[in-house]
Design a protein that fits this description.
Blueprint (H helix, E strand, L loop, with lengths): L26 E4 L3 E7 L14 E7 L1 H12 L3 E4 L1 E2 L4 H9 L8 E2 L5 E7 L5 E6 L8 H8 L7 E5 L5 H10 L3 E5 L17 E5 H8 L6 H11 L4 E5 L5 E4 L5 E4 L12 H14 L4 H16 L11 H4 L1
Parallel strand pairs: 1-4, 1-9, 2-7, 5-6, 9-10, 10-11, 11-12
Antiparallel strand pairs: 2-3, 7-8, 12-13, 13-14
Length: 317
């Protein structure tokens, strides 16, 4: 069922011509940093059931971290802003090892965000998320993180941190290009002015939740975006069914999924996002952006973990 009262003001967009922004811009990923506790099982547990896990692994993750690493491995210079607790050092190390500038990340005296992830034998997952420090963003920290960015720079956001609406407003006021992955989709999105977003990344479930259309009818989801958010570019990912891109003129580009043997789908969408953005920013043809992102996502699902599964540029090429 369609969410009511989505905030979509008719805001003039920053000058973006189908993503052709140029390579002089700075890129900020402001998002979550999680420790992922991954349990491999025969099948995902149902209510009232106890199931033994054959393997437990601990990985670095969080949609913010994953997308930062994906952009960096794709070839972008990326800055990351976010918050961690005292056990969050491995997250900083993972960012820096991938080439992400983590100097804006702050330590707090509180638990780091983490997830409990079940992965079944087909590679599908079920995730329980604990926000921790990801939910402790303050307006003061937002101002500090945005201080070094301005008109024409790009900010990538997800919905695993608090004060998302404030970050969008402040980034837009500075003339930044706002890219949003509204995942997980919940009532916090209702507070955000989606008219200030220049590029959306949604999967079929989020697209359905936003539009009220069936997740099995992706073109109707795109029709809703045409009618309600025509001032934004849209990437709609459909897992094994591929992905759509719709530009500001309403033109649509289809990309089939690259077939592979799935081991763990945890970071597939984040990998697609990071690789697509690298090509989009550097003015690659949209068909090439989509194909490259699909290849990167296919490699990611063939490996265990979130951030560790994201391929390098050389692997994709």
């Amino acid at each position: 069922m369609k969410w009511k009262n989505l905030k979509v003001e008719k805001n003039p967009q920053p000058p973006v011509e189908d993503g052709r922004i140029g390579e002089s811009m700075k890129v900020l990923s402001f998002g979550s940093l999680n420790m992922d506790y991954v349990y491999t099982l025969d099948h995902i547990v149902v209510p009232g059931e106890t199931e033994s896990s054959t393997i437990r692994n601990v990985f670095t993750g969080g949609k913010g971290l994953n997308q930062s690493i994906a952009m960096a491995r794709a070839g972008l210079a990326v800055h990351h802003a976010g918050l961690v607790g005292e056990e969050g050092t491995p997250l900083i190390e993972a960012l820096e090892e991938a080439g992400v500038d983590a100097s804006l990340v702050k330590f707090l005296d509180a638990p780091t965000g983490h997830t409990f992830i079940q992965v079944n034998k087909e590679g599908q997952n079920s995730i329980v998320l604990f926000g921790g420090t990801n939910q402790m963003v303050t307006e003061e920290y937002i101002d500090e993180a945005l201080a070094g960015f301005g008109k024409g720079d790009l900010i990538l956001l997800q919905n695993e941190i608090n004060m998302l609406d404030v970050i969008i407003d402040k980034a837009y006021a500075k003339g930044m290009i706002v890219a949003l992955n509204p995942s997980p989709f919940d009532r916090k999105i209702l507070a955000c002015d989606l008219g200030k977003v220049s590029l959306f990344f949604v999967n079929e479930v989020e697209g359905s939740q936003i539009s009220g259309e069936s997740a099995n009818e992706p073109e109707k989801i795109l029709d809703w975006f045409d009618a309600n958010l025509a001032g934004a570019n849209i990437v709609l990912t459909l897992g094994t069914q591929g992905a759509w891109y719709r530009n500001l003129d309403g033109a649509r580009t289809w990309q089939p999924a690259v077939k592979t043997e799935a081991v763990d789908t945890t970071a597939a969408g984040d990998t697609f996002t990071g690789y697509f953005l690298q090509g989009w920013i550097q003015a690659m043809p949209i068909s090439a952006c989509m194909a490259r992102a699909a290849k990167a996502a296919a490699i990611a699902v063939s490996r265990e973990g979130a951030a560790p599964s994201i391929p390098t540029r050389d692997e994709v090429e």
